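To illustrate the input format used throughout this study, we show a single complete record. The first block contains the structure-token representation of the backbone; no residue identities are included at this stage. The design step must infer an amino acid for every position from geometry alone.
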């Protein structure tokens, strides 16, 4: 009988060992599963912290780098001119000069270069480029408008008025010319003429940004009427 029971005993022993091994394997797998889940959770937390940090940096950098748009009123209490400038590219001036070597009389390139020169404080160079444009197209409104601004920077008030008013001879409702003439006269203390040009502007372009600026400035004008 003892010999007859030996196979069952061995089977039971083998079965027990098998289940013990399987149980250990299951425990190991469960442990690995928990470890994987833990690692995933840690990775998600780290990723979340990185995203928040990146967002904070971008928001802070944007606040430092964004320049407030002209409101029609400069920090010195004088009206600013109409501003059609674009986002600046530090290499743009070099690219424009290279383009001009290939096509010296290309008007859009000359005009853009003159605007960059004016904005960077090189008014004399800007004036020279703008006059090159006007030699080819005397009635070019953008070149006359920009030259008016540059001449005002250089202290040539009469030249600034002449080139800006000249635009209105062919385009009486030219928005930026009306605004800039108002700004010129306001800056030299002639509130009556400034109001005249800004009133024309607000009548003809009532919903424009320039008209809104003009209304703000007219509320600050001191006139003698």
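Output of the design step:
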């Amino acid at each position: 009988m003892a010999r007859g029971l030996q196979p069952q005993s061995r089977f039971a022993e083998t079965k027990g060992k098998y289940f013990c091994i399987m149980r250990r394997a299951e425990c190991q797998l469960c442990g690995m599963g928990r470890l994987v889940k833990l690692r995933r959770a840690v990775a998600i937390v780290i990723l979340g912290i990185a995203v928040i940090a990146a967002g904070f940096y971008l928001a802070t950098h944007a606040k430092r780098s964004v320049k407030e748009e002209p409101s029609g009123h400069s920090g010195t209490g004088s009206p600013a001119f109409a501003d059609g400038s674009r986002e600046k590219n530090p290499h743009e001036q070099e690219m424009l000069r290279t383009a001009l070597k290939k096509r010296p009389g290309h008007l859009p390139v000359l005009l853009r270069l003159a605007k960059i020169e004016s904005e960077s404080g090189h008014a004399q160079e800007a004036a020279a480029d703008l006059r090159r444009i006007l030699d080819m197209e005397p009635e070019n409104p953008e070149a006359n408008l920009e030259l008016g601004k540059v001449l005002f920077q250089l202290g040539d008030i009469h030249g600034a008025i002449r080139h800006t008013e000249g635009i209105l001879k062919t385009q009486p409702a030219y928005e930026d010319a009306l605004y800039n003439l108002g700004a010129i006269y306001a800056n030299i203390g002639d509130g009556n003429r400034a109001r005249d040009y800004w009133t024309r502007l607000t009548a003809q372009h009532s919903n424009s940004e320039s008209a809104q600026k003009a209304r703000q400035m007219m509320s600050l004008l001191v006139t003698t009427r």
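Structural context for interpreting the output: The radius of gyration is 37 Å. The chain is about 75% helix and 0% strand.
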